[in-house]
Amino acid sequence: MRNGEVSHWVASLSGDATRRPAVTGSLDPDVCVVGAGFTGLWTAYYLKKNRPDLDVAVVEAEFAGYGASGRNGGWLSPLLPGNRERYAAARGADEVRRLQRAMAAGVTDVLDVLAEESIDCAALPTGNVVVARTRAAMQRLRKRRAGDVQWGYAEDDVAVLDATGVRSRIDIHGAVGGLHYRGVARIDPARLVSGLAAAVERRGVRIYEDSPVTEIRPGAVRTPGGTVTAPIVLRCTEGYSGALSGQRRRLVPVNSSMIVTPPLTDEQWRQLGWAEADLLSDAAHVFVYAQRTADGRIAIGGRGSPYRYASGTCGTGEVDQPTVEVLRNRLVSFFPALADTPVEHAWRGVLGVSRDWCASVDFDRESGLGQAGGYAGHGVTSAHVAARSLADLALGRDTDHATLAWVGHRSPSWEPEPLRWGGIHTMYRLFAFSDWWEERRASSRTSLVARFAGKLTGLD
What we know:
Helices cover about 35% and strands about 20% of the residues. It contains 12 helices and 20 strands. The protein has helices at about 10, 40-50, 85-90, 95-115, 135-150, 165-170, 190-200, 265-270, 320-335, 380-395, 420-440, 450-455, and strands at about 1-5, 25, 30-35, 55-60, 75, 125-130, 160, 175-185, 205-210, 215, 220-225, 225-230, 230-235, 250-260, 280, 290, 300, 345-355, 360-365, 370-375. Strands 1, 5, 6, 7, 8, 14, 15, 16, 17 and 18 form a 10-stranded mixed β-sheet that branches. It has a 6-stranded mixed β-sheet with strand order 9-4-3-13-20-19, with helices on one face.
């Protein structure tokens, strides 16, 4: 089994792997974007699209797509990164619905840019099957659908499925029902971020790699090789923000791990009943997410070991064997016919999570500093929509994106260590216990332990 090396997606990229030059000496663009993941690259894209004369530089610690943008599950979906009630408390219910509609439009907008820029990332519009394997999980899904419709989904965007309806799409062992969402797409995330980097360079953006930022202050970004001086500095570092001064308690890096199978045969796909390319997730508290890849594999991910002490990140993404086994066992529990199918590659990445699980976008015109992040695992579409918000704010444009509900949102700080480490690990253990309890008892109601954990962590 291949382990780490960033991700299967990155390892599968073809072509020249030569790194872009690092920052050396002094640079003085109009805008410096810190971070060459989805948020940073989309921000650069929309800055140049709306102001072609603008001089934009992107500074990256490793290489474009090294972080979550090159490691994620490849879901382009309208899932909103935040607690809708918290956004509504500050901005009102109508603004939350507007944000949800912007997320739905964001899926289409990304697909349009892929066509316009000729970016081949195996994008395929499809649906999402969310399976419930207990009556308690199905109860949660019915509540989830009601909330989705209340907060901006159209009635026909999400359908309730009985067990037969689930199996007609994907023959998942033990399914008692589920939901089916439309308006999502499958992508290869590394090919998307690679294509997007090339697209912004064609528009004149300069990308500097191997340039870890040691300090951000108004008007300047410091790296080991030199300083970038710019009146506008936009931080797009998501789960890697903790290394920067003052950011350690703003976003914590939560680990998410993935495994991928070898390509399956046509007979295996027939046995699985997974004829279409619907994305797959479940309604467990410690949930998993999966896709049928363009080259005929199953890529499945989940949390595993959730957090490293003092907001440590995961480097090149090696995964501990117990986490690999957890994910493999979940895959086999869904599809017993895969019991003898090996894991070909395992990897992990970190996603940025705020204390109230809400994403935010900020820009201070006086200092010229801005940021976007906190997508809590729903970053592929969110990064695109947030980047449009951030670019419009930086350019002083009065647009719908510049006034979305996450603009100016203030999340509380995470607790200091060791409370932060203890709290996050306790949360996941409570949720894992709740899943075990509900499945063991075939529960019809959500565990009281899970309800307590949801309240404790701010998820509910």
